[in-house]
Design a protein that fits this description.
Layout: E1 2-6, E2 14-19, E3 22-30, H1 41-54, H2 56-70, H3 73-82, H4 86-94, E4 107-117, H5 123-133, E5 137-143, H6 150-159, E6 165-169, E7 176-182, E8 187-194, H7 201-204, E9 215-223, E10 248-257, H8 264-275, H9 277-287, E11 314-319, H10 332-344, E12 348-351, E13 360-362, E14 368-370, E15 373-378, H11 379-385, E16 395-396, H12 398-402, H13 415-420, E17 427-431
Length: 442
């Protein structure tokens, strides 16, 4: 007699003993028999073996994607440790089994609202988690300072050997948007502030007007690198690696943070920005093309002149604050559906989460989860990359995935994460890209 329950559960006739290697599990020892059976990876292995022998086709179509995520050290063992404390994160990141897990090329993007960074932030823990995600570039929001935080960059360089981390934010007061990126993997250039992504800009002519935020846009270029191990980086299951070929891959990246609140003005501000997003981005992209600058061109000749309203391959990442409105009553799901439709009409695809559709922990009452943060990809990039829609999905990390977007199940404690890191969760996206369309010969 042995039973394994999640933390905060009870069971008659069992004594709870925390498992040191599984901080999110509690091993229950039956007092009647005094014995315990260790369960976990063995059960998964047996399930996979039986399924493969009986229904291999079913495994490939439905079971394999789930279990490949479930049995990875990140999902089953080490991810809870990473989010439990700074010390456990460092131990998990540096353990030999997680060194050099990625030995193929891929383009990994992410977004994370850092909640008043660096105020009250455990910078070392934050750096460890960013390194753990394996992101090449992370769009970040709620930065309280414009200048790069050298402590964060130094910690990242220490956690990711051979890296050269950089940071940049807009010049507004209050909450800023920006990027954190590994220059050894990706180059960011042609920086632009997208003033029209501030809903008040039309009336104030101030990119930072009414305490709202503009977008920050840069051209990201991944140079082809020799296939090698990326030490200290774990596979999050966020998607398939990009094809390693000669050349480079480029796309515009945009970090945004839309108006927060459920009032009519707040919701109207968000809708105004979303409904004209492609036009605002294309205008700045067009203006950025000088005589000596090469914009992103995947399926057209580089000498072709871009139309001023033509959106180039673009990825928008950030906090869209899709929280609905009070009157007339609009649920978050209704606002998200409307935003998805408006973006689609502009040639933009809001990429859905693969599972666990939430990105923010709301602390009022007993707490709840909401989906506020999103990644949007231009259709031109999707079509050029020949990425099938069912393969393009966002991976939700952190306390959102550990709690399965349910604040009532008590699977994973949130207080320490919210206090030391953020009440938002990282959203990650890998692009699986065909070499003919995206990678350019040098």
């Amino acid at each position: 007699g042995c039973c394994v329950h999640m933390r905060n559960t009870t069971s008659t006739g069992c004594d709870e003993r925390p498992s040191p290697s599984r901080p999110f599990l509690t091993v229950m020892v039956d007092r009647r028999h005094g014995s315990c059976v260790s369960v976990g990876a063995a059960l998964v292995a047996v399930t996979l073996a039986v399924t493969m022998s009986l229904r291999p086709g079913l495994l490939r179509a439905h079971v394999e994607p789930f279990f490949s995520f479930l049995v990875s050290p990140l999902a089953l063992a080490d991810e809870p440790a990473v989010w439990s404390s700074r010390e456990q994160c460092v131990e998990a990141l540096t353990t030999p089994r997680n060194a050099g897990r990625r030995d193929r090329e891929r383009v990994r993007l992410g977004t994370w609202n850092l909640a008043n960074f660096p105020r009250d932030t455990d910078v070392q823990w934050l750096a460890c988690i960013i390194a753990w995600t394996g992101a090449d570039v992370l769009a970040v929001q709620e930065l309280t300072q414009e200048e790069p935080h050298q402590g964060l960059l130094n910690a990242l360089d220490g956690f990711v050997p051979g890296s050269a981390w950089r940071m940049r934010a807009d010049a507004c007061n209050g909450h800023r948007v920006g990027f954190v990126w590994n220059k050894a993997r990706v180059t960011l250039s042609q920086w632009n502030v997208v003033a029209d992504l501030n809903a008040a800009f039309e009336h104030t002519s101030d990119p930072c007007g009414h305490h709202l935020r503009p977008g920050l846009m840069a051209l990201a270029t991944w140079e082809k690198q020799p296939t090698k191990q990326l030490h200290g980086v774990a596979d999050t299951g966020a998607g398939d690696p990009a094809t390693a070929v000669d050349g480079s891959f480029s796309a515009w990246l945009v970090s945004i943070h839309l108006d927060s609140g459920k009032g009519n003005k707040d919701a109207d501000n968000r809708a105004r920005v979303v409904s004209a997003m492609a036009k605002a981005l294309a205008k700045v992209q067009y203006a950025s093309r000088g005589p000596n600058r090469t914009a992103v061109n995947l399926q057209q000749n580089d000498t072709q002149r871009q139309h001023k309203d033509e959106l180039q391959p673009t990825v928008v990442l950030g906090d869209f604050n899709t929280m609905g409105r009070r009157q007339p009553m609009t649920t978050p799901a209704m606002e998200l559906a409307a935003a998805t439709q408006m973006l689609a009409e502009q040639g933009l695809v809001l990429v859905p989460p693969r599972r666990n559709p939430c990105s923010h922990f709301y602390r009022a009452g007993r707490g709840s989860f909401a989906l506020l943060d999103h990644i949007v990809v231009s259709k031109s990039l999707v079509e050029a990359a020949a990425v099938r829609s069912k393969r393009l999905s966002v991976h939700t990390s952190g306390l959102c995935s550990l709690n399965q977007c349910d604040a009532q199940n008590g699977l994973f404690p949130t207080a320490n994460v919210v206090k030391s890191l953020s009440d938002h969760c990282p959203q990650l996206l890998d692009l699986s890209i065909t070499q003919q369309a995206v990678w350019h010969e040098q």
